[in-house]
Design brief:
Elements: H1 5-23, H2 30-48, H3 52-55, H4 63-75, H5 82-104
InterPro entries: HepT-like, HepT_RNase_toxin
GO molecular function, one term: hydrolase activity
GO cellular component, one term: toxin-antitoxin complex
Length: about 110
């Protein structure tokens, strides 16, 4: 049985929170990079299953690019640039988290 869009949004929110915690650690630890990378894959998987009516409510979020990044991370992991992953974690994840909180409603800060 497929999970609801709300459940997928909660998955994204949890992964964003984890990434924020990992990204606050000092650079250079390969475990941090791997942890962020796998959480980005989780986010991409969840986004793939969101109904378009949900994602259309936040047009400023590059939903298609999130899925493409997931595919890159999952299938071409040796070609993954550390700088892109870390920039995504520090710059893009807070924006995504805020958008997901808005989609989930006021109880999540939206």
């Amino acid at each position: 049985m497929s999970r609801s869009s709300e459940a997928r949004l909660r998955d994204i929110l949890a992964a964003c929170a984890a990434i924020e915690g990992y990204a606050a650690r000092p650079d250079g630890d390969p475990i941090v990079f791997d942890a962020i990378r796998i959480r980005l894959v989780e986010i991409g998987e969840a986004v793939k299953d969101l109904d378009p009516s949900v994602t259309s409510a936040e047009p400023g979020i590059p939903w298609v690019e999130i899925v493409r990044m997931r595919d890159q991370l999952a299938h071409r992991y040796f070609d993954t640039a550390h700088s892109i992953v870390m920039t995504t974690a520090r710059s893009d994840i807070p924006r995504l988290k805020a958008a997901v909180e808005r989609l989930l409603g006021p109880e999540h800060g939206g």
